[in-house]
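Q: what sequence does this backbone want?
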């Protein structure tokens, strides 16, 4: 039997996986969340996926909490994480009406007023359900972009793009972001750019260190650089989980004139809002990421 090429292997994996993903997406919500409960049992109890990483992260940022509190947060987090990742799949089969019922925008007028005057960057975090955030594109007139990490399997990558297109969002990679924003500004195309901004940058790309959950770490400053250079607005999207399968989103303005802000002030304000959100209900943050892995590499000049 001849060896399959990389493209053929990607296609085979996609063909085998797609029917399972489709089936999950069309399950009634009652059965859907029963399946999530089963996934939680496998992920948390059987396989113990990254339980050590989650425990270390929680102990690091919540030194004041007891062991019992930490364990409760960890368990709730895993239950929520299974819901979220399956809800991402559920997006495939959701209608606009269902999404509007389950993901409510509380103050869309804030963004609508800003978009009348200029383009806007909307930084978000890995909190609550960051995938369903994309539905906000149905509520404003500007062209909506979502910055994402390209999937290596081109068939799954195309699937993600098709799903996002349902919500009027155009996906662009991090490498495409700068040229896309500059081009749109030069052509006078007012746009809204959604960016997940709480990841840990590679040390080679670390330009600024800020306090996140009480720990000094390198942080991404790309959104601030664009906002200050092109005088864009920046509005944080705070998402809260109301109950299982239901979320509310609130726009919190950081600045309406990025070009008039002090260096690092936008980044610091974003970190402040992100931390405030996480401390309210920590079980809804994505603790499996090694967000604080570079904390021991703080530049010497910052220690003085």
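A:
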């Amino acid at each position: 039997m001849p060896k399959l090429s990389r493209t053929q292997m990607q296609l085979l994996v996609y063909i085998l996986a797609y029917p399972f993903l489709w089936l999950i997406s069309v399950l009634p919500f009652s059965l859907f969340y029963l399946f999530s409960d089963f996934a939680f049992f496998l992920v948390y109890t059987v396989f113990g996926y990254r339980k050590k990483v989650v425990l270390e992260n929680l102990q690091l940022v919540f030194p004041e909490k007891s062991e019992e509190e930490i364990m409760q947060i960890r368990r709730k987090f895993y239950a929520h994480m299974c819901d979220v990742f399956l809800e991402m799949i559920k997006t495939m089969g959701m209608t606009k009406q269902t999404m509007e019922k389950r993901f409510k925008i509380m103050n869309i007028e804030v963004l609508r007023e800003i978009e009348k005057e200029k383009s806007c960057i909307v930084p978000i975090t890995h909190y609550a359900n960051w995938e369903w955030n994309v539905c906000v594109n149905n509520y404003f007139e500007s062209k909506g972009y979502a910055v994402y990490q390209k999937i290596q399997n081109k068939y799954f990558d195309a699937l993600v793009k098709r799903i996002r297109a349902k919500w009027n969002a155009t996906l662009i990679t991090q490498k495409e972001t700068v040229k896309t924003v500059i081009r749109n500004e030069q052509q006078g195309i007012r746009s809204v750019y959604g960016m997940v901004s709480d990841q840990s940058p590679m040390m080679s790309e670390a330009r600024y260190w800020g306090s996140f959950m009480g720990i000094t770490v390198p942080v991404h400053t790309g959104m601030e650089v664009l906002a200050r250079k092109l005088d864009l607005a920046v509005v944080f999207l705070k998402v809260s989980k109301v109950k299982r399968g239901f979320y509310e989103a609130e726009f919190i303005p950081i600045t309406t004139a990025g070009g008039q802000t002090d260096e690092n002030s936008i980044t610091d304000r974003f970190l402040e809002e992100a931390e405030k959100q996480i401390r309210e209900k920590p079980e809804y943050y994505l603790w499996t990421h090694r967000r604080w892995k570079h904390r021991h590499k703080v530049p010497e000049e910052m220690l003085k």
